[in-house]
């Protein structure tokens, strides 16, 4: 595949316009001169190689291969300055755009112990990754002599064995170190992908390549049936324990609330009873000191034995002259009697004698004076009333 014009076996224009999936391509011709034109398109790099040595490199642009533009090659082959001088070398074009969608997958299942349920499982995985050339000279120094053209798939094939062993090791190590079980592994694909990328990146860097992205599409854990049943049993056990714990906590809260409410109600009743009793005593005009004195007196009188006698209602006190207890009872009873007397309603004054009514004849005469002034029915009723008193 020749890209360029050839004259007298000398290529005067060097250019590559091939497929974009080609990562490294070697020009078919090796005969050039100091008048040849080199064209490097965007996303490309051109590198000259002679006798296995990587020499001058060119970024995107158009160049005349004058000796000043190829200082390393000129020094190697002692090219004279000026004029048109032929020379031999190999020209490689490096595609520096990102090579996307390169597929990978485990070549065989990874047998390992599940870190969560301690069951033997077999793990397989697949995904894709992206590469780009970071240093074309370094890439050629590793690949020179191995071929004239490398496509993206060829690069993956070149690194396949290295990738396979490291990917398998990284997946199992990440699952074990981070305690990721087979049922949860697909929730950690990004995490595992980042771990694999970090492990592979240094190996690609040695070849002048950059692992731009590494993605894990899916991971299967074979033997999932027994695995799933164990997970279900454990999940149900956890749910049952959690439910029972929540029920116990709820019962405790309800009982504590009931006790608090009963205590508050009991306190309210005691306060209410004390308040009502105090109001009644206040309405009666009996002070707390007087009630206390009466209670003390009654207690002492009851416990005095042969030295005194009991208080007998409101009829008086018997045999209290020589007894301290009887004396206290007497004082208390006197206080109560005094207070009761003060509260007793005052006796009403005697009503004056009723004035003597007029005699019947006078009352009839007075009634006759009203005849004609009051209704006849009322006159007759008043008359009957007076006559009924005779």
Provide the descriptors you would attach to this structure in a database record:
elongated, 390 residues, 4-stranded mixed beta sheet, alpha+beta, 5-stranded antiparallel beta sheet, 15 strands
CATH class of the largest domain reads: Alpha Beta
What overall form do the CA principal axes indicate? elongated
Instruction: List low-pLDDT spans.
Output: 305-325
Distance between the termini: 164 Å
In CATH, what is the homologous superfamily of the largest domain?
Band 7 domain
Mean pLDDT across residues: 78
The ordered string of helix (H) and strand (E) elements is EEEEEEEEHEEEEEHEHHEHHHHH
What does this structure look like?
- The protein folds into 4 domains: 4-95, no CATH class; 99-222, Band 7 domain (Tetrahydropterin Synthase, Chain A, 2-Layer Sandwich); 288-337, no CATH class; 359-390.
- The radius of gyration is 61 Å and the shape is elongated.
- The protein has 390 residues and is of the alpha+beta class.
- Helix 3 (152-177) packs across helix 4 (189-205) and helix 6 runs antiparallel to helix 7 (324-343).
- The strands form 4 sheets. The protein has a 5-stranded antiparallel β-sheet with strand order 7-6-10-3-14, with helices on both faces. It has a 4-stranded mixed β-sheet with strand order 1-2-5-8, with no helix packed on it. Strands 11, 12, 13 and 15 form a 4-stranded antiparallel β-sheet that branches.
- It has helices at residues 71-77, 136-143, 152-177, 189-205, 224-284, 288-302, 324-343, 360-369, 376-387, and strands spanning 4-7, 10-14, 22-26, 31-33, 37-40, 44-50, 53-58, 61-64, 86-88, 90-95, 99-105, 110-113, 120-133, 149-151, 209-222.
- Strand 1 and strand 2 (10-14) form a beta hairpin.
């Amino acid at each position: 595949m020749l890209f360029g014009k050839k004259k007298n076996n000398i290529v005067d224009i060097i250019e590559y316009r091939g497929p974009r999936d080609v990562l490294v391509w070697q020009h078919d011709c090796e005969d050039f001169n100091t008048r040849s034109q080199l064209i490097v398109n965007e996303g490309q790099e051109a590198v000259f190689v002679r006798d296995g040595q990587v020499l001058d490199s060119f970024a995107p642009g158009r160049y005349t291969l004058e000796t000043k533009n190829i200082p390393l090659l000129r020094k190697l082959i002692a090219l004279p300055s000026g004029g048109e001088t032929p020379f031999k070398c190999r020209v490689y074009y490096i595609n520096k755009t990102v090579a996307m969608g390169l597929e990978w997958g485990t070549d065989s299942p990874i047998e390992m112990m599940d870190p969560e349920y301690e069951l033997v499982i077999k793990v397989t995985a697949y995904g894709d990754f992206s590469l780009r050339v970071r240093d074309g000279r370094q890439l050629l120094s590793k690949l020179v002599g191995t071929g004239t053209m490398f496509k993206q798939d060829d690069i993956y094939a070149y690194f396949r064995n290295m990738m396979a062993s490291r990917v398998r090791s990284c997946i199992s190590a990440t699952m074990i170190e981070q305690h990721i079980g087979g049922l949860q592994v697909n929730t950690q694909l990004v995490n595992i992908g980042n771990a694999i990328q970090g492990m592979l990146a240094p190996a690609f860097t040695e070849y002048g390549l950059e692992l731009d992205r590494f993605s894990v599409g899916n991971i299967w854990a074979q033997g999932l049936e027994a695995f799933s049943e164990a997970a279900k049993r454990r999940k149900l056990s956890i749910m049952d324990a959690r439910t029972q714990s929540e029920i116990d906590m709820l019962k405790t809260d309800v009982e504590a609330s009931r006790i608090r409410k009963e205590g508050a109600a009991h306190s309210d009743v005691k306060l209410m009873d004390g308040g009502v009793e105090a109001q009644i005593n206040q309405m009666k005009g009996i002070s707390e000191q007087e009630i206390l004195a009466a209670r003390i007196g009654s207690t002492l009188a009851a416990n005095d034995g042969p030295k005194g006698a009991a208080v007998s209602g409101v009829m008086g006190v018997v045999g209290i002259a020589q007894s301290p207890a009887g004396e206290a009872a007497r004082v208390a009873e006197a206080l109560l009697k005094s207070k009761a007397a003060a509260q007793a309603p005052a006796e009403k004054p005697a009503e004056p004698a009723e004035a003597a009514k007029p005699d019947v004849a006078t009352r009839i005469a007075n009634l006759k004076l009203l005849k004609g002034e009051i209704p006849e029915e009322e006159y007759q009723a008043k008359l009957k009333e007076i006559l009924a008193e005779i």
